[in-house]
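task queued by scheduler; priority normal; single chain, no ligands, no partner chains; default sampling; output format set to structure tokens
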Amino acid sequence: MYTSFKTIKNPAIRLKSIGWWRPWYQLTDGQLIYGKMYYDGFFRTRSICETDTDTWVFERAGVFSRSIKISNQGEVIGQLKMGMFCKASLLMNDGFEAEFSRDSVWKRGFSWNTMRFGEIVKMKQGVWGRCIDITLDPNTSKIDLVPLLCFLGAHFMFLKQRQAAAASV
């Protein structure tokens, strides 16, 4: 159904929105589809992401919690702790750590950074928020967690966008 992420040739991919009222998102390079992300529930707080080999579920650890549990087949495999000012830190059960942060206060760009590999993924949201342009580091695009980072970063960006919209009401 989906193309394996390890076969990706183009470092520039896009998470594209499909639909208006209950949109779902497709991870694509324009020709091949690498995965899908959609929201479940009335308040759309639970995100389900599918690739050719994995299905991840992102949901808050609690009602007032600032962390997101990452599950695969019902087992919690990691946690994203949301910090202040659009920063978050990821800690997986296998020891993988990464930090998600905004590139600049004035820009819509975010990036995933690790101590071991440096900058792995750059993400930039479109003007209307309907798509996210993703640029992968060609040296690290074969890491197993890169699709997870793409979906988790997009989920975090959408959460921040919803929080800003709720605060302006």
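post-processing summary
- The two ends are 41 Å apart (CA to CA).
- The mean pLDDT is 91.
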